[in-house]
């Protein structure tokens, strides 16, 4: 790695063992694990001709033998998994989204370039899948599931509902309607703002 001049088999191993993160695009050399030849980053070893990975992206310095339908997205600036045919790059959100969300999602400018509002970890380069609620703000799927388990049903960023809450609202409206108000509050009115529809 150019940052600390040590040899690691992957960037995750580096980041777990060092007090800083490696910028994979700064990597200019690699060492063949078969013959120990140090060389410039390339698809196969210049000495023993070993192919470094079934999937190779020289821009990201990524070599992978597992088939994950990897593809490089120029818009995201990184490799993604899942297949180019199943995703599209939204220029406003500045990230790849499932094709089923094309023209069916709320755009939030550069949404993936901010951290998860729950764990505060990076979303854009994370290996954890993200959840995309109706409001368009992103959070890791595991963080979303954790919120639901803890009884939190609102987006941590904008407080809109993360799920369809219409049945609960109906139930609560019915409860309020069935509860008589004390005489001193009978004519009392309060203005409220709905966090879902903003009215």
UniProtKB/TrEMBL annotation:
<dbReference type="Pfam" id="PF14599">
    <property type="entry name" value="zinc_ribbon_6"/>
</dbReference>
<feature type="domain" description="CHY-type">
    <location>
        <begin position="1"/>
        <end position="50"/>
    </location>
</feature>
<dbReference type="GO" id="GO:0061630">
    <property type="term" value="F:ubiquitin protein ligase activity"/>
</dbReference>
<dbReference type="InterPro" id="IPR001841">
    <property type="entry name" value="Znf_RING"/>
</dbReference>
<dbReference type="InterPro" id="IPR037274">
    <property type="entry name" value="Znf_CHY_sf"/>
</dbReference>
<dbReference type="GO" id="GO:0016567">
    <property type="term" value="P:protein ubiquitination"/>
</dbReference>
<feature type="domain" description="RING-type">
    <location>
        <begin position="116"/>
        <end position="159"/>
    </location>
</feature>
<dbReference type="InterPro" id="IPR039512">
    <property type="entry name" value="RCHY1_zinc-ribbon"/>
</dbReference>
<dbReference type="GO" id="GO:0008270">
    <property type="term" value="F:zinc ion binding"/>
</dbReference>
<keyword id="KW-0479">Metal-binding</keyword>
<protein>
    <recommendedName>
        <fullName>RING finger and CHY zinc finger domain-containing protein 1</fullName>
    </recommendedName>
</protein>
<dbReference type="Pfam" id="PF05495">
    <property type="entry name" value="zf-CHY"/>
</dbReference>
<dbReference type="InterPro" id="IPR008913">
    <property type="entry name" value="Znf_CHY"/>
</dbReference>
<dbReference type="InterPro" id="IPR037275">
    <property type="entry name" value="Znf_CTCHY_sf"/>
</dbReference>
<dbReference type="Pfam" id="PF13639">
    <property type="entry name" value="zf-RING_2"/>
</dbReference>
<dbReference type="GO" id="GO:0005634">
    <property type="term" value="C:nucleus"/>
</dbReference>
<keyword id="KW-0862">Zinc</keyword>
<dbReference type="InterPro" id="IPR017921">
    <property type="entry name" value="Znf_CTCHY"/>
</dbReference>
<dbReference type="GO" id="GO:0006511">
    <property type="term" value="P:ubiquitin-dependent protein catabolic process"/>
</dbReference>
<feature type="domain" description="CTCHY-type">
    <location>
        <begin position="52"/>
        <end position="115"/>
    </location>
</feature>
<keyword id="KW-0863">Zinc-finger</keyword>
<dbReference type="InterPro" id="IPR013083">
    <property type="entry name" value="Znf_RING/FYVE/PHD"/>
</dbReference>
